[in-house]
Specification:
Helix content is 37%, strand content 12%. It contains 5 helices and 4 strands. It has a 4-stranded parallel beta sheet. Strand 3, helix 4 (93-102) and strand 4 (110-113) form a beta-alpha-beta unit. Helix 1 packs parallel to helix 2 and helix 1 (19-33) crosses helix 5. The longest helix is centred in the last third of the chain and has 22 residues, at 135-156. The protein is globular, with a radius of gyration of 15 Å.
Length: 161
């Protein structure tokens, strides 16, 4: 039986307190469903919230879906992440541009827009819920959860029945 190397995933948004932590949790759940322990993390392009836990509204949405965000802390994306992770997923176009500019030549990471992994949403950004209502976090969860499910099926294989 051939051994296949496990994949790793990094999700990147502006402050690493709303969209990317929810995406991290959604992908961690996909890995758990498949019985895999993978390197999955999230990071920020900006320094405003470094060291802080996710926004309370993101924590609420996570808990509603049986996930605990309380141990997550915001951090900056680094050049080293491009060697650590196979997939680096930008939550919107500004993050995608930032990542492309930061990516070292010859690094292994494949950069993509998060919703490019969701049929009929290619080229779309996950809207930033930070300045909106609580319901925006529910929409964010729906988008990142669906995109992670499709990405996991493609990269990790289907869930065994």
């Amino acid at each position: 039986m051939a051994h296949r190397r496990l994949k790793s995933f990094l999700f990147v948004c502006t402050g690493n307190i709303c969209r990317s932590p929810l995406a991290e949790l959604a992908m961690r759940r996909e890995a758990t469903i498949r019985g895999l322990k993978l390197d999955i993390d999230s990071a920020a392009t900006g320094h405003w919230h470094l060291g802080y836990p996710p926004d309370p509204r993101a924590c609420r949405v996570a808990l509603q879906h049986g996930l605990d965000a309380s141990n997550l802390r915001a951090r900056l994306v680094t050049r080293e992440d491009f060697e650590r992770f196979d997939h680096i997923l930008a939550l919107d176009h500004s993050h995608l541009s930032y990542l492309r500019n930061l990516q070292p030549d010859g690094s292994k990471a494949r950069i993509s827009l998060m919703l490019d992994h969701l049929p009929d949403r290619q080229g779309s950004a996950v809207a930033d819920p930070y300045y909106g209502s609580d319901e925006g976090f529910d929409v964010t969860w729906q988008e990142v959860e669906a995109a992670c499910r499709h990405l996991a099926e493609k990269e990790l294989g289907p869930v065994e029945a």
